[in-house]
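COURSE: Structural Biology Practicum
ASSIGNMENT: Worksheet 4, Part C
STUDENT ID: 0417
INSTRUCTIONS: Below are two proteins. For each, the amino acid sequence is given first, followed by its structure token string. Answer the questions at the end about the second protein only.

PROTEIN I
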Amino acid sequence: MRNRSSRSAARVLLAVLLLTLSELALAAVGKVLFVSGPVTLERGGSRTLNKGDTLEAGDVVVTGEKARAQILMADGAKIALRSGSRFRIDEFALPQAVNAPSQAAVVSTDGRSVSSLLKGGFRTTTGSVGKVDRNAYEVRTPIGTLGIRGTDYAAVFCAGDCTDVPGMAAAAPIRDGLYLGVYEGSIAFTSGGQVLQLNQGDFVFIPLAGARPEPLQTPPAFLEEDGAGRITLGSAGSARPAASSAQLDDFNERRSPTGGAEEGKDERKEGSDVSQPVIGTTPNGTPVDLTGGDAPRPRGQISYNLGAPGPVPGFTAVSTSDADTFVRDANGNVSAFAGLFPAGGGGSVAASYQIGTSANTNTGSNVATGLSWGRWSSGTATIVAGGTTLNPSLAQQSLHWIAGTPFDLDPVLPVSGTRSYVVVGATSPTDTRGNVGVLGAASLDADFTQQTISTAVVFDLDGRTWFAAGSGGFGGASGNSVSGTFTRVEVSGLLLGNGTLSGFFSEPTTGGPTASGFGLSFSLTDSALQLGTASGVIAFQQGAGQPVAPPALQNRDVAFAILQLPQVPTGTIGTLTNPPGAAYTVDASFNLTQLAGILPTDPVDVATYNIGTATLAEGGVDAVTVLRWGRWSGGDITVTGLTTGQTFTQSLAQQSLHWIETGNLAAPPVMPTSGTATYILVGSTNPTDALGNVGVLGSATLSADFTAQTVDSALDLTLAGNNWLVSGRGSIGAQANLQPHQFSGAYNGTINGALPAFGSYTGFFSQPGATVPGVPGGAGLTYTLSDGQGVFSATGVAVFRGP
């Protein structure tokens, strides 16, 4: 524990606060440091008051039962309001010496601070206002006005409502009136033209209706404590026995109005430390100092995430607790900490995290921001939450953490303006399937006026590119912490997702800029919930950063099939394949709305196919292979020949256009030159014909011989009461005059076991999702079938996942 007996250190700290808070004068007169319980702000209405909110002249702060609020004024004054209080800021102006240079209006030399205690009580350490001109400061009460001589004092006004006195019986009488106590400096109480001065160590009761003040040998309990705990501010000051000034000599008796005469000698010595900090608890139940002054022990912050176990996938949180609850190894890496754990219903419970048999890896630190980071991986960690001990395995996932340096006070943040941040370090993103990725880029911007941050991140993980953008609001575990959500999550330009974020502004380095660093924790999942949870942490430093945009749509494979087109002679059918690099567009869910492919005219042309007035009748996605499929039906599509420019419409009232697409492809999949692989069906469209019938694909198979560069496929489907059984072999790559990862083939079989059936298929392999190194993870194909007589037909899409 640090030695805080030196008042010079406190004065230096106050000077720093005054310089930092000069910015506050531009927008507000004060800022809320802490709230606990029901606390409201009255300003043209009533709303909940939160930590970090700014205050203006005319505001009334109201604390409810067992509630607490603490205010930092722009001149450095701190006011701790007890429960059941109403406190109004009537006037406020900064002294000229600390006023913002850019403010045009000239205020009084020593500023102005006038407020009213309407109900309840407070303890305060005064700021720069009133240091020179003592008339510049006053607190009005229902029975008189308080002035200062530079002080730390407390006041409680009782009017039949002082009932929350610790240690007193419920029926114990508490006399109505004003109770005052001075811990350092002096105050002056003025009422009815009379002035009463109280010095350090004086405690007095002033009855209602003009009765004479009564000195108190010892302060009543409720002057320093209420039902919510102690309300005194941390102070290095001392208390002395009650003053013997002439103004107090004629008091009628020295007793507490809550009981009989006090006996015994006051044993407090001159210069003794009577500091009694305001004590509260963090959300995880850890006691902390809430005075904003000389904290009895430094605190630290950590932001962390863990994909599983827990009822909330992708849990990310930030916790603030005593710094000695953070255990660091010899290298300064966190090996244990106190935090939160997700509970049912969206809540959380207090928890302790220990590294267990896992190990710190991917660690780093940044001196300028005071941030350090890493991730626990391998082995098992230990989590004790809500009385339950969990031992999650970190063999397939990691616990990512980012921590700041210990601090005595919450880092003082600007109350207006914006800042940009750049990446100075990060852990490698991981998922809950054992994959480790690479961070591409990240950006973060803070709006201190709106008390929000916005962030974006791009990284590659298991063959997929993730992009996430979101925002968060100040508050939570501490005034400098942030929590929020990602409102836009994309995977390979094909999948949607969601995510959460948490983080905190780090303690600025000595002489460094305000809010010099930010530690961010992120956790993401895809909407299909097939890829597990992707997570990581990022360290930012204040600097000129560039916004991170989602990756542009890249080349991708698209295959599609349609039975009949006007340019094709009646009864002729075919399978159409999207040529490499052809134009395409997608909707907000990445479903195709336009594609390009060959038009089987004579001679063959290339055309764009636009969804027009048709709609997406059905669709699906496989996140593992990054394949999406669907079919357009109803309305008319528009077809435009790219060579001739001729445009025509094609009705989909009696047929469908089936399609399948991959995600963004930075490069075509690398194909093996030997070996075999068998693929299983994971999705399909319902087969359709040219008469408006919709059927069911019962089964489909696909196998590849990469040595021979061939594929084999079979289909079993039912359509319009007819069962189709077909199979056939095709070629891969050059043997089919296609790219190395594409294939095409022919089907032969029967309809209802009697009529002959013919057809063709075309498709491609996709890279993500492989469990065997070097083998494509997925494949998609389109097919068209016919009886050869123009009576029966079928077309559709089948999607496969590899070994």
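PROTEIN II
(use this one for the questions)
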Amino acid sequence: MKNKKVHNISFIITCLIIAMLLNIAVFGQDKENLSERQLIFLRHEIDSLNKLAFKIFSTNPLKTRSIAIKSHALASAVGYQKGEGKANNYIGMSYHITGSYDTAILYYEKALNIFEMPGDTLNTGKIYNNLALLFSHREYYNLALEYNLKSLRYAELMHDDESIFHNYNNMGSTYEKLEQYDNALKAYNECLNILGEDTTQKKLYSYAICNIAIINLLTKQYDSVEQQLQKSLHFFLSEQDNYGISQAYKYLGQYYTERKDIDKALEAIENSNKYGKIIDNKKLIVENRFQKAYLQFLLHNTAQAKLLFKESLQESKNANYLKITIESFKYLSKIDSLNSNYFGALKNYQAYMHLKDSANSLKIQNQIAELNIRYESLQKNKEIANLTAEKELHKLKIKKQLSQRNLLLLLIVGILSIGAIILNSRRKIRKKNTLLAEKNEEIGKKNKELHDHKQHLEEKVKERTSELLKAKNKAEESDRLKTAFLANISHEIRTPMTGIIGFASLLKEEGLSGKEQAQYIKIIERSGKRMLNIITELVDISKIEAGQVHTNKCLTNINEQMQYLYQFFAPDAAEKGLKFSYTEAATSSKSWLITDQGKFIAIMSNLLKNALKYTFTGSIQFGYTIHFKEKSISQWQFYVKDSGIGIPKQRQEAIFERFVQADIEDVNAYEGAGLGLAISKAYVEMLDGRIWVVSEEGNGSNFYVTLPHQLIEKEIPSTIETKQLPSNKNKAISLKVLIAEDDETSILHFNIILKEIAHEIIYATTGKEAVEQYQQHPDIDLVLMDIKMPVMDGYTASREIRKLNKDVFIIGQTAHALAGDREKCIDAGCNEYITKPLDKTILLNMLRNHFNEIKEKDG
């Protein structure tokens, strides 16, 4: 019995061996062109080439590319896929660092196709990290962060600290470009935490320190910037890391520029260029050229600055570096303006604004590109999943075929063992068939999921594309209106300039009568006021758009403001022969309203100027009414009514929009930038009010403004106390004056104004010189301090002088006239603040009032 059992087992084994031999005969043998030892040697050589390519990457990317191409060719010839994938990655990196992003992404994708299929987690994560950095450079910031998170998950899974470091480093770079500096700093500090006390990773540590220095530079935390950059630079130089060296010098140049150390800044930029050329970093070289141009601009070398900005502009346009192109146009416009080349300034400013709007359109296109990349990535992932499932299915089919073939062979070999083999094979077949059915069902589900997701994504893409197209159309419309607005502004600036320059030239001619001289002076004065009005409106609208305007509500006597407006505009109305009147709805003691007095005057002034501009016969009326609700005041309604040309119904909403005046054909004949109503609307909304117009073309216009009423808790006096000027206001004063001013025209103007009241005038052209002059002449009575001066600004100089004398009268004067300037001057120690162009009457009254009050006190 035992011998029979052994015989049966031996027979079965013999059958299986015969089956294997038949199987080999059917399928053949693999080709072996190379021995196993030769393959191992070649793979080792390919790995060595790839390691060398990576090692010299930051020093010489072009050499990296050459080595990686050789490695790729060899790996492809012997079928070494891992080596081929790494070579593709390093070729992509060499194109990436030199700014050839489209070529780089092709090689990254080739590497991914190799690493993703066998599930090489480590190398797949590294490619994701490179793609994240590339997407950040292409300004696909959301996609960059998404790929960094993918890469970070792989790196953490593999416990690869170096890859984790690079992911946090790249995330920091992306947050930096998004101007989310707190998040960037957290990411860079996380890089340092990963390194810990590992002193062997000096290169990674140096890059982290350099990046933290950049964030400190961008956020103006200057204390440790130079030390951090110099520390990183020292290591990069010791390692001959040309990329790191060029970057460290570049940011040192920016740091020295911020600190106004021009010589050091220029030296750092030259060094950055030197190492940038070695690695063929074209973008760095263009950025450095722009920085050199900016430094020449700071040095007031406008001719040299203009030449460099033009070169920077041409290079950035050729390489499609949009940000540098935009900034180059902006500074070329500023230089042309300083050189009185207003046509060139306007042309460059138009190009600057056009490209700025184009940058917004490019952001929209980048968002669309991000969606498309996400969609393609999703499809690719689904295809990979399907391909994997199909491979598994194919394996199952092959196994099924093998099982059937073996069954057939066993039937031929022996009847005795056939029963057992058939039962075992059938059981396996049922199991495989069940698994096959499950796989088929799974593939069907995945296909349906892919189809549904594709449909959903396509709908989302269509929806988002529609939104982006609307935004693009709106941006294009804005661009068209701004272009028209700039053309109108050019006309509005040139017209008064013609009056000023033209008639100033005529004044030089000999033989003019006194009447002619007076007439020419009047024209120059009127043109100057028109120019100042346009500039004021442009400054106001710029502050509004920048969000720099804030309300300052206080108790305001409306009747006083109405009287002021009437007295101010009555001469203009009389000159045009118009009937001009106003109406008060309350007595003076009851006409108090809590509002922003300056903005209220600006609103009403703009409405009255508008009425005077478009009314040629008839009358202009203005005033206010008080509305009640349940016996309490609910709101104040102000109005300006005129008998002018009226406004077509289709334009009545548009007139309150910014940049619209130049686009309305039927008002081109009237002067003005068309910003007054837009400014008024913005101020009214800041005060929680409403503005509207009721008008009919040819029959005049009625403008209305409502402002909310706030309960006034304290009692208002029945009479208004006004400050009386001193009785001795006409006393003669004789002052010793220090004029701190670097503009020759302004100095000449001051000399003429002050000749009535100054017995001695001392001059200083820098803030530092002003302080030194005061130290030498402590008996100075008055300091006229220009706020914007070289070496030391007027704020600092005022503080230094105030330390020497608490009583000397200091007046801050500036051409900026921006929100908060007055407060800054007072905080710096100035007693008063005036804006350029100076009004002689205002300045002399200010001085006489102050110094006569002192005389009266001294008695």
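ANSWER KEY EXCERPT:
Q1: The radius of gyration is 40 Å.
Q2: The chain is about 70% helix and 10% strand.
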